[in-house]
Amino acid sequence: MRWIVLIVDDHPLVGQALELSIRAAYPHLDVGRVTSAAEAEQYAQLYGPRVKLVMLDLLLPDADGFSALLRLQQLLPDSAVAIVSSRADSHSISMARAFGVQGYLPKSAPVETLVNGVGALLRGEELFPPDAQADVAVIDFHKRVARLSAAQLRVLRALSDGKLNKEIAGEMNLTEGTVKQHVSAILKKLEVNNRSQAVLAAAPFMRTL
Questions:
Q1: With DSSP H G I counted as helix, E B as strand and the rest as coil, what are the percentages for the chain, rounded to 5?
Q2: Which helix (H) or strand (E) is 68 found in, with range?
Q3: pTM of the model
Q4: Pick from 106, 111, 126, 130: which is nearest to 53 by CA?
Q5: What molecular function terms (GO) are annotated for this protein (predicted)?
Q6: Residues 78-130: tens digit of each pLDDT
Q7: What domains lie within the chain, and their CATH numbers?
């Protein structure tokens, strides 16, 4: 079975350059490239067992921050994931490490550095900037929020925006009863007692989800 490196990046020049470079450097691997979180999910569902490594951009047209990462971790539990992003702030790097990715590579790095990183990641190494630390509180939050389905994550984001069940139902094309079921599941998985506690628990992280 040939392993796949999946590139998830909506920037055509960056994605294409990375794809061509990885193909040239690792002829024994297949390379997939998609430009959105939705396409990445579809690809994962089709080729999941073969996907060995995901190179994921944080800024996608249909996903904010780490929401795409959470979904891909659910679909590809045995795959390594590395963030390849123009963001280089300590918060994003700390979040990524706490969320269990294997590497954080800046887009500003030479393509050769990114390609060499692929080999290191496939060997099981971790690649992070020096002194990058994972926040213990974020690690705990990731364990809980990772239990949420894609729909439940969307509902949690809507709750954090102060939206009512009726508004959420309209936006997601669901019945209010279904939204209530999602809210109940969210409370249980986040180990909180009510909506307010759920919003408070997620508040420090919502800007990156």
A1: 55, 15, 30
A2: helix 67-75
A3: 0.78
A4: 126
A5: DNA binding
A6: 999 999 998 877 878 888 888 889 999 999 889 999 999 999 999 999 999 87
A7: 4-134 (3.40.50.2300), 147-208 (1.10.10.10)
